[in-house]
């Protein structure tokens, strides 16, 4: 009796063990199938994970402050850890060429940054224009009678033979220095360098008092929306033709962060959108705040920038 009981118990235990093993095997197969299925979906969909640290550099011009913060906000919203760093022109180009920074949306070509482009372009990737129709030149208020660099010299006494510039070494400053040497009437004139902000302040103060002033100017820029200004004619072509603002990134960015690369490649906008951000910053908004407002209010455009091909 006891022997038969143990025999029956052993048979039952063996059958239970077989069922447990079978159940476990079925679960494992299910897990493996799910894993393979999920991996297949991810691979077939080509989804890009937006993560990583990215540094964008820019020169502290109104245009570049606006554009860099806007595209930086777009990348941040996607999930990137974004740092935006203001630098001198030459250092900006060098940092992207060396790979110390990841990219910039601040390359004025072909004239303004022409020398820097020739020096560094072979060591970076050019993604093309993010804005077309940019311009540089000598700018005066509309109320001034002078219309051309050819006769600017006639107003030397009123202007103290001085053109108010921005940062030393900036392309528009170099072009203006060339203009002073090219136009006979400007013999003895000087280009007084300072900063973009100081130039804009001097222009505003003179404009409010209807005083004469000539500055190194460029567009797009908020000053053309806030004041009635004009470019002086440049018959010698010292300032060159219309320019583009282009996006440049470091070599290897496409492989390291394909999503960020694609967004930077897609980035392009028009003057009205551009000016709206600059004007908000000029009116007192922080660049981060203005960028966030733009992204929120222009989602259709942002969607175009963030479309992954």
TrEMBL record:
CDD domains: PBP2_OpuAC_like. Pfam families: OpuAC. Residues 1-22 form the signal peptide. Residues 53-296 form the ABC-type glycine betaine transport system substrate-binding domain. Its main location: membrane. Keywords: Cell membrane, Membrane, Signal, Transport. InterPro entries: ABC_Gly_betaine_transp_sub-bd. It is found in: Cell membrane. Residues 29-48 are annotated as: Disordered. PANTHER family: GLYCINE BETAINE/PROLINE BETAINE TRANSPORT SYSTEM PERMEASE PROTEIN PROW, GLYCINE BETAINE_PROLINE BETAINE TRANSPORT SYSTEM PERMEASE PROTEIN PROW. This is Glycine betaine/proline transport system substrate-binding protein.
């Amino acid at each position: 009796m006891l022997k038969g009981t143990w025999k029956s118990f052993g048979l039952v235990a063996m059958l239970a063990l077989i069922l447990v093993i079978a159940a476990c095997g079925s679960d494992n197969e299910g897990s493996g199938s799910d894993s393979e299925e999920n991996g297949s979906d991810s691979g077939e969909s080509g989804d890009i994970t937006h993560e990583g640290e990215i540094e964008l550099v820019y020169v502290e011009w109104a245009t570049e402050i606006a554009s860099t913060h806007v595209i930086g906000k777009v990348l941040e919203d996607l999930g990137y850890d974004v740092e935006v760093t203001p630098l001198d022109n030459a250092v900006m180009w060098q940092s992207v060429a060396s790979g110390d920074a990841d990219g910039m949306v601040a390359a004025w070509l072909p004239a303004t940054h022409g020398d820097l482009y020739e020096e560094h372009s072979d060591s970076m990737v050019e993604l093309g224009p993010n804005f077309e129709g940019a311009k540089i030149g000598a700018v005066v208020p509309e109320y001034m009678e002078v219309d051309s660099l050819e006769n600017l010299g006639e107003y030397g006494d009123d202007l103290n033979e001085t053109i108010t510039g921005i940062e030393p070494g900036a392309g528009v400053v170099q072009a203006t220095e060339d203009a002073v040497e090219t136009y006979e009437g400007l013999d003895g004139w000087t280009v007084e360098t300072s900063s973009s902000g100081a130039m804009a302040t001097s222009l505003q103060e003179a404009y409010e008092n209807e005083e004469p002033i000539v500055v190194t100017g460029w567009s797009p820029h908020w000053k053309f929306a806030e004041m009635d200004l004009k470019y002086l004619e440049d018959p010698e072509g010292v300032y060159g033709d219309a320019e583009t603002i282009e996006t440049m990134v470091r070599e290897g960015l496409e492989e390291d962060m394909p999503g960020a690369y694609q967004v930077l490649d897609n980035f392009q906008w028009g003057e009205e959108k551009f000016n709206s951000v600059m004007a908000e910053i000029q009116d007192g908004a922080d660049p981060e705040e203005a960028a966030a407002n733009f992204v929120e209010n222009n989602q259709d455009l942002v969607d175009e920038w963030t479309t992954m091909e």
